Amino acid sequence: MHPVRLAVAWVVSAVSLLLAAAAVPGADVRGFGGALVVAALAGVLNAIVPPLLAALRLPFTVAAGFLVVLAADAAILLVAADVAPEQLHVDGFGAALAVAVVAAAGSTAIGAIAGIDDDERYTFTVAQRVARRVGRPTVTDAPGIVFLEIDGLALPVLRRAVRDGTVPTLARWLESGSHRLREWETDLSSQTGASQAGLLLGDNDDIPAFRWVDKASLTMVTCSNPDDCAEIERRHATGGGLLRDGGASRGNLLSGEADAALLTVSRLADERAPNPGYRAFLANGANVTRTLVLGGWEIALELVAAARQRRRDVRPRGRRGGAYPLLRAGMCVFVRDLVVFAVLQDMLRGVPAVYATFASYDEVAHHSGLERADTLEALRKLDARFGLIDHARRHAPRPYELVVLSDHGQTQGATFRQRNGYGLDELVERSLASGGRVSGHAGGDENASGVRRAVDEATGRRDGHPGRRDRAPADRAAVVLGSGNLGLVYLMGRPHRRMLEEIEERHPLLIDALCAHPHIGFVLVRSAVDGAVVLGAGGRRRLADGAVTGVDPLAPFPPNAARHLLHADGFPHVADIVVNSFFDPATEEACAFEELISFHGGMGGPQTRPFLLHPAHLPAPDEPLVGAVAVHRLLRRWRETCNGAGADDTPAGTTADPLVGTLVHGAAPGDTGRDG
Are the beta carbons of 178 and 403 closer than 8 angstroms? Predict the structure, then answer.
């Protein structure tokens, strides 16, 4: 660290210790001079103790490691009190822990007020020093490529964010001409599972939604279940994954056949205890207290934003209580910064290709809305982290190209249940013949279910056994699933898909009830006579030849809607009845069959309009990019342009995952342990 910055960080730490000692009962620091001494002692100890703890190959889960390093912070202050009792006094472990946390909060607040970005600079510095300990980096003139995915950000929202100054880093790239911005169009299933299968593996067939039913085996498949994601990757990997031959996957659902993975759902089984991939992050003691402080601040921001929405009666308004504030803190602080730290190390090691997903914007938007103040604040903070990644290019052992993209957008509107007082499952149930019972599943938040399973893995607590699959209820007449504004109705009892004629014979009210509903835009079914047909309140469309009778039910939807529906109709696991909500082009509103006011999963509005922000000199086709597989082909060409087809640039003499090697060697002795 630069001597001036080191001195500033030392002073900030000393001031923070003074403030913390004044606020915590049972703690006392003797004046500013004493605070300087204690800050210096704590800095030296933090440079040694957390890296040693993180380097131990003990069966630490990430949760246990986090707590151990947090406890070490308190122990360091106790040791400092023993070494310099005339400068520092603390009454036991509890007081020491409180001082450590409050001091970290003080450092963060002082830095924010003073406009000092030492936290981010320090994160980069630690990542740089730790990366040097792994072994010989790949030094080459062949560029690497880093793909940074902003989950759920639509092109129109990004354009307004650029205009309004919310994303200054991305705006600077566009203004300088170094990057260009273009749109691509999702498939029918506009959600991360289908999009990432296409983007990373080049194949997303038979992924009809975020969750679906395999009627033959009576299993429920969900794109946040690690076992299901592993099976999806196994079925769709063909040897042409975007990240094969030395690439790294960070924070994704699928790995893209990467050699190294962290927080990648399809590979979570590989990340269980002793969980070496997390230890580099824990080796920086400041990461732990800073994460705790910023997580608490994020919870406070969520509580204030939720109260403001209630007070102002903002509509649509989503559910924001329960465990959601904790989930938001986890996604917007811990997961985000852990992925950033991993990407920095990958770049400083010279990894040829990295794909990292950041879900903080998507998570906040689901509950707050597309462009509400706290949603855009999450996007602003993410843009700042991209600036840090951009800065790392100057210090990497090879040049890097940065590509920013999204996997889908989001559309906003009050939910189906909010509008009607009942859910899609209840509508189906009362429309079935013979009083058949329905099982409804609408998870409400793809990140929530994914994080819960990740937490189970990270803490070593997992229900069932490897290979566990969720069961579909065989004793119900129908299973109704919500995936954003896409609904799937599976009529149980037979393993095959039921034809329209059979459905109308067995349940004569069902199709008409769905088509006539004012908040349903269209219904996709298969007819024994006409093949795939789309039905609406005022007409129908035969997909084989585009013949329309009455009013075209696809008129309010994208021009390629029929193409996407025809493709999805051929999936082996497509639902008997596929339901898409209405879409109002004037207000850009639709409604989810889950309890999310900003959503994605079907068609209508900006949810199908993700973006690519790419270096201007990388060749891109003039024709529209339709479907995630088309984007995969482009990304794959870019990677081949940068580091060659099939080139494996993994440094000799290192482990497959740069983070794992980092932990065996430990952090650099010169690393300080505090912000600055």
Answer: no
Q: What is the dihedral of CA 458, 460, 466, 469, to 10 degrees?
A: -70
Query: Tokens in use for 658?
Result: 């740069």
Alpha-carbon gap, residue 340 to 294, rounded angstroms: 15
**Long-range contacts made by residues 80-85, C-beta under 8 angstroms, separation at least 24?**
80/38, 80/41, 80/42, 80/45, 83/41, 84/34, 84/37, 84/38, 84/41
Tokens of 498: 């039921």
Query: Of 534 and 295, which is predicted with more confidence?
Result: 534
User: What are the angstrom distances between the C-alpha of 170 and each of 112, 125, 149, 162?
Assistant: 21, 23, 13, 7
Residues paired with residue 533 on neighbouring β-strands, in sequence order: 525, 542
Tell me the pLDDT tens digit for each residue of 552-562.
999 999 999 99
Q: In what order do the strands lie in the sheet with 211-214?
A: 211-214, 219-222, 470-471
Q: Could you write out the DSSP letters of every residue in 223-243?
A: TT-HHHHHHHHHHH--S--TT
Distance of alpha carbon 446 from the chain centroid: 9
As a whole number, mean pLDDT of residues 409-433 equals 96
- Of the pLDDT bands very low, low, confident and very high (cuts 50, 70, 90), residue 62 is low
Give 113's pLDDT tier (boundaries 50, 70, 90).
low
Q: Looking at per-residue confidence, does 58 or 7 come out higher?
A: 7
* pLDDT for res 5: 64
Residue 613: CB partners within 8 Å, gap ≥ 6? 158, 170, 173, 174, 179, 180, 181, 403, 404, 405
**Percent helix, strand, coil in the chain (nearest 5)?**
50, 15, 35
Largest CA distance in the chain: 91
pTM: 0.85
DSSP 80: H
Q: In the structure encoding, which two tokens stand for residue 25, read together?
A: 């009962």
Catalogue the E-assigned strands of 21-90: 27-29, 88-90
User: What is the amino acid identity at position 524?
Assistant: L
- Give the neighbor-by-neighbor strand order of the sheet with 611-615: 260-262, 248-250, 353-358, 144-150, 400-405, 611-615, 179-185, 625-626
Q: Is the confidence at residue 167, as pLDDT, over 60?
A: yes
Give the whole-angstrom CA distance, residue 16 versus residue 19: 5
